[in-house]
User: Which sequence fits this backbone?
């Protein structure tokens, strides 16, 4: 039995080292984004973070929060389309994309993420705006609108978190200490990112090498890796769900019918609880409909933000 104990001790030791000692290479630091070279990165400094964002167009403001786990490239089709009528900002919140965290006590919970949204809006001088998010960032947008309704003119939620329901097995596993740290570190390879993207999207022809490179690079950054498992553990969606019937902001809910991460039935739950919503289910679309079915998403967003 001693050899069994020795093997178990070795396995535990390796797992602990992988979770808390080993750091994978930040290989994405060497990537030079063709997309950002074309649209132009901007930065603004606050006490929370040095926010990375892009800006284009003119007119009433629209702020798009980068989808959780990716960067401003997650809204590339909408940035171009909405900039025809609006001043559009796409921003990486802390732990996403190319934003650099400055606050050493940042908690990666709903209080922290909504504070980050406010800090960014204040820094770029946007007092009131239309706001949109996908997946995690949809939940952050919702929470911000609930806490600061005077600052959000309209709200668009795309396959959003915000309901007090369990996630998939993969995401729930990130809540387990050691497992979450190790799994997140091991998921930053390009082949893993490809599988993640292909699992999220129905229209596989849109999962191009160019998109995958843009998606992958910031996922290798150490702070973004750390943010992924901390956000999964600390975001309390019971707060946002309880507040849904009192949410006064006019809301557009868009959902991919083939979403494998946030099942389409959750759109019905939002529609049931939100008092001022329009809900549209998009056939042939997955968890990231703005990338998967951009033309239809653009049409809905342009109509909603213009009305």
Assistant:
């Amino acid at each position: 039995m001693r050899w069994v104990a020795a093997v178990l001790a070795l396995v535990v030791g390796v797992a602990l080292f992988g979770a808390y000692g080993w750091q994978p290479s930040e290989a994405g630091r060497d990537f030079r984004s063709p997309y950002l070279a074309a649209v132009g990165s901007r930065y603004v400094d606050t006490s929370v973070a040095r926010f990375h964002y892009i800006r284009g167009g003119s007119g009433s403001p629209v702020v798009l929060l980068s989808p959780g786990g990716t960067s401003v490239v997650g809204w590339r089709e909408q940035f171009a389309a909405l900039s025809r009528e609006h001043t559009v900002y796409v921003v990486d919140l802390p732990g996403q994309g190319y934003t650099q965290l400055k606050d050493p006590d940042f908690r990666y919970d709903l209080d922290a993420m909504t504070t980050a949204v406010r800090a960014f809006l204040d820094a770029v001088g946007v007092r009131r705006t239309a706001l949109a998010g996908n997946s995690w960032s949809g939940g952050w947008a919702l929470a911000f609108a609930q806490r600061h309704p005077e600052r959000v003119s309209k709200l668009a939620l795309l396959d959003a978190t915000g309901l007090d329901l369990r996630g998939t097995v993969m995401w729930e596993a990130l809540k387990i200490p050691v497992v979450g740290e190790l799994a997140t570190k091991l998921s930053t390879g390009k082949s893993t990112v490809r599988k993640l993207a292909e699992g999220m999207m129905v229209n596989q022809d849109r999962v191009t090498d160019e998109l995958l490179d843009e998606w992958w690079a910031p996922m290798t950054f150490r702070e973004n890796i750390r943010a992924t498992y901390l956000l999964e553990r600390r975001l309390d969606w019971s707060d946002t769900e309880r507040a849904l019937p009192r949410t006064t902001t006019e809301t557009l809910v868009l959902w991919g019918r083939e979403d494998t991460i946030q099942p389409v039935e959750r759109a019905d739950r939002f529609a049931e609880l939100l008092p001022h919503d329009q809900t549209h289910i998009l056939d042939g679309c997955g968890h990231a409909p703005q990338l998967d079915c951009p033309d239809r998403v653009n049409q809905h967003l342009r109509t909603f933000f213009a009305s």
About this structure: The first helix runs from residue 2 to 20. DSSP finds 14 helices and nine strands in the chain.
